[in-house]
Amino acid sequence: MLSICMIGGGGFIGSHLCEKLVAETNHKAVVVDVSSEKIDHLLDRSLPWAHRIEFHQLNIKSDSRLETLIKSSDLTINLAAICTPADYNTRPLETIYSNFVDSIPVIKYCAENKKRLIHFSTCEIYGKTIGSFLPEEFRKDPKYFILKEDESPCIFGPISKQRWSYACAKQMTDRLIYAEYAENGLDFTIVRPYNWIGPRMDFIPGVDGPSDGVPRVLACFSNSLLRGEPLKLVDGGKSQRTFLYIKDAIDAVALMIDNPERANGYIFNVGNPDNEVSVKELAELMIKAYAKVSGAPASSMSTVNVSAEDFYGKGYDDSDRRIPDMTFITRQLAWKPRTPLDELLDVTLQYQHRTYSRAIERELSKPSN
Ligand code: NAD
Ligand code: UDP
Questions:
Q1: Fold category of 81-360 in CATH
Q2: Residue closest by Cα to atom 25 of ligand 2
Q3: Which domain of life is it from (predicted)?
Q4: What amino acid positions are annotated as catalytic residues?
Q5: Residue 319 CA: which ligand 2 atom is closest?
Q6: Which residues contact 274 (CB under 8 A, 6 or more apart)?
């Protein structure tokens, strides 16, 4: 049994990891976050795992309790971040502080106290693919677009394209962790999620988040479907993503926790290369799935093209394509994703409809001033 300090453990990924830890293992989750909203259902003291989960409401930017919590745990998992693209170009300072500066003490405390660290990086660290710079006829070779942990370069746009503030900050954090490993023997594992999606991801604007907030694409499209509005395709929705069901992803993290001898010293891509679609195709699949869930005809739901500047503001840029190379994770942990995209969208949209449709109906029926 391990005591696991989960920083940012009250977020989307953290909430699913907490569920797995309390229900299927003997480990203890010591959750650190500014909010417990997404794990409140696990914190009731009458639940059978009550002695194996505790919540510490604190901001890691400025709280001396952090070192004590890391010191008294066997393993630290760092999930804390600002990680919604709408923030990268509009709040670049907060993005850089959150993804680089605030992780420095976490890494330092782990290194000084000889504690193992599992850190959440991102697939965005690779930036744009080499293929995106080549003429169409050269792009077919996988070496120009499949992303490998130990080979692919990190290709970011110019400084004025502040979209890359997140990827760049995450990259510095990965480099700092790797330097602590190389010089001081830090036991580390770095996780690179590729668009993990599922229930509890982000927020629905105006219901459990600010009405002018812009979450990641799953929540943006869910919000439009719930409100009967067209789904907005940024620059036509031509960018491609591979989507991984959160439950499959959590199985990979659990293997890393339980197999330090196979996970320490590695950076792992964690994604589902079989679930690749363009954002436009994602919208079409979500419309189909939501029609099934809500009973409304798919013909009543539509998409609309919007420019990146209108949607995100100045300084936005996009990753064209992200396909994970799966060699390391298959070889080291024998993990493979299981859930196809249509199945994971069905489950997720059932959750969105169940959780939000009444609140949205109430909001829409209010007389506007
Ligand atoms: P999330 O926003 O749901 O979770 C992050 C959590 O960190 C939030 O609960 C937030 O309150 C907390 N947090 C942020 N700053 C904090 C601070 N100063 N003190 C205390 N708590 C703080 O995001 P998520 O999707 O669960 O992502 C978790 C990690 O995985 C992040 O590092 C993110 O960059 C990385 N990641 C996720 C994905 C994905 O597909 N979901 C993709 C790439 C990378
Ligand atoms: N996107 C979109 N409409 C939206 C929200 C996002 O077309 O309402 C696009 C966005 O431009 C990007 C992709 O969807 O190409 C994925 O965006 P997300 O915010 O999920 O994060 P990313 O994968 O870029 O980190």
A1: Rossmann fold (3.40.50)
A2: 85
A3: Eukaryota
A4: 166
A5: 24
A6: 242, 337, 340
The pTM for the full model equals 0.98
Helices 246-258 and 12-24: angle between axes, nearest 10 degrees: 60
Q: Which residues of 312-349 are buried (b: 16+ CB within 10 A; e: fewer)?
A: beebbbbbbbbbbbbebbeebbebebebebeebbbbbb
What is d(CA 119, CA 156) in angstroms, rounded to the nearest whole number?
A: 22
Q: Is the ipTM of this complex over 0.90?
A: yes
Tokens at residue 113, please? 């106290």
Per DSSP, 122 falls in state -
Instruction: Return the best residue to mutate from 279, 302, 307 for the ligand 2 pocket (most ligand atoms within 8 A of CB).
Output: 279
Dump pLDDT digits (tens) for 205-256.
Answer: 999 999 999 999 999 999 999 999 999 999 999 999 999 999 999 999 999 9
- DSSP 8-state assignment for residue 366: S
Q: Ligand 1 pocket: which of 20, 70, 83, 171 to mutate (most atoms <8 Å of CB)?
A: 83
